[in-house]
Amino acid sequence: MCPDCEDFARTVLLLGQLALSADMAGADLDFVDVVSPSLAVSLPEPPGTFPDDSDPAEDS
């Protein structure tokens, strides 16, 4: 698996586990509130989504 693919998959997995833990009784919701946005921002662009030279703004 390519390094970008591994990072993307790992971050998505962590976000999913964090969401599941937030629904558990006794969950530390302050922790979830702090960590969730940080993980979301660190989420790399999905591998292979757009070529490096593409500009979605020019497609309109």
The DSSP helix count reads 2
Radius of gyration: 15 Å
Report the uncertain regions: none
What distance separates the N and C termini? 34 Å
Record field, number of beta strands: 0
H and E order = HH
Largest sheet: none
Measured as a percent range, the helix fraction is 55-70%
Strand content: under 5%
Q: What is the arithmetic mean of pLDDT?
A: 81
Shape: elongated
Structural class: mainly alpha
Task: Provide structural commentary.
By secondary structure, the protein is mainly alpha-helical. 57% of the residues lie in helices and 0% in strands. The chain contains 2 helices and no strands. Helix 1 runs antiparallel to helix 2 (29-42). The longest helix has 20 residues, at 3-22. The protein is elongated, with a radius of gyration of 15 Å.
Blueprint (SSEs and pairs):
Layout: H1 3-22, H2 29-42
List keywords for this structure.
elongated; single chain; 57% helix; 0% strand; 60 residues; mainly alpha
Task: Give a brief rundown of this model.
With 60 residues, the protein is an all-alpha fold. It is built from 2 helices and no strands. The model has no long low-confidence stretch (mean pLDDT 81).
